[in-house]
Specification:
Organism: Luminiphilus syltensis NOR5-1B
Oligomer: single chain
CATH superfamily of the largest domain: Transcription factor LuxR-like, autoinducer-binding domain
Strand order of the largest sheet: 2-1-5-4-3
Order of helices and strands: HHEEHHEHHEEHHHHHHHHH
Helix content: 40-55%
Radius of gyration: 20 Å
Strand content: 5-15%
Distance between the termini: 57 Å
Number of strands: 5
Number of domains: 2
Protein name: Transcriptional regulator, LuxR family
CATH architecture of the largest domain: 2-Layer Sandwich
Number of helices: 15
CATH class of the largest domain: Alpha Beta
GO molecular function: DNA binding
InterPro entries: Sig_transdc_resp-reg_C-effctor, Tscrpt_reg_LuxR_C, WH-like_DNA-bd_sf
Pfam families: GerE (PF00196)
Structural class: alpha+beta
């Protein structure tokens, strides 16, 4: 049961969050509001869509952990993430706990063995807000070994906050500026496959374009090598070259650049939308 002092503190913090709707301060302010209620680590907000790579919207992750928490996650593991799978499968709840969602079998999964066990995370909760056009915004909060898993009381508190958290996230994401930058426009879904195969073609070689398409579709280095019949080291060289030619430094930067070209898919007419975006 939430006590009056906790409720009052949340109301004050929620008011501050509402004041930041539509601004870059929204997610950091929401992270801090949740921190005043429960100890948590690595808060991060993601935009998911069934037909596009995930997009990191905001995070408060120490620099030393960004490569693992974001870049490596985007190299393929996200497709096996139970939170991602739930998000694109018409979720009904506004909050999920990873251990409960996987019925306690997370350590037996390939996702855990190949990726999650390296994150040094002992518990994770996701707030979920469904948007228009099949997009979903998730806010994930974690616990590290020194903090221990969320207690039942702590999870019950987060559960009680789930409805207002989902509501303010949706309100923020439907603001005009956010929608224009991040959400799919009606009618372009069928053109996304063309964008996957044509994006960057004006700037990279033929083989690099094949590697780039697999990167955009979420395939890791090993899977890409197998599909293309080349070595893992060759794929890595191609990836490095692609980063240089497209002037990006990470998988997150690459995905963000790809998303930014979405409004130009129709104008490109099957050609490289990046060329139009770059002017």
């Amino acid at each position: 049961m939430v006590d009056l002092k906790t409720l009052n503190r949340w109301n004050v913090d929620l008011a501050r969050v509402i004041e930041t709707l539509g601004t870059d301060d929204f997610f950091p302010t929401l992270f801090e509001a949740l921190r005043t209620q429960v100890k948590l680590s690595y808060p991060q907000a993601w935009l998911y869509h069934r037909d596009l790579p995930p997009q990191i919207l905001s995070h408060d992750i120490p620099k030393r952990a960004v490569k693992l928490q974001i870049d490596r996650y985007l190299e393929g593991p996200y497709q096996e993430d139970p939170f991602y799978q739930t998000s694109i499968a018409s979720p009904r709840s506004h909050i999920y706990r990873l251990g409960t969602l996987t019925s306690g079998k997370l350590p037996d999964s390939g996702y855990y063995r190949d990726y999650y066990q390296d994150t040094d995370t002992v518990d994770e909760v996701m707030f979920l807000s469904r948007l228009d056009g099949g997009s979903v915004t998730n806010l994930c909060v974690m616990r590290l070994p020194q903090q221990g898993p969320f207690t039942q009381d702590e999870y019950d508190l987060l559960y009680a906050l789930a409805e207002p958290v989902a509501a303010v996230i949706k309100s923020h994401c439907l603001r005009d500026d956010f929608a224009v930058r991040n959400l799919l426009k009606p009618g372009i879904d069928h053109q996304i496959d063309i964008a996957f195969s044509s994006f960057g073609a004006s700037y990279v070689s033929g083989r690099e374009r094949e590697v780039l398409e697999l990167m955009l579709r979420g395939y890791g280095t090993a899977t890409s090598a197998e599909r293309l019949g080349i070595s893992v080291e060759t794929v890595r060289r191609h990836r490095k070259s692609i980063y240089g030619k497209l002037d990006v430094n990470s998988q997150a930067d690459l995905f963000s650049l790809f998303i930014n070209t979405m409004p130009f898919i129709g104008q490109a007419g099957g050609e490289d939308p990046l060329k139009i975006y770059m002017g």
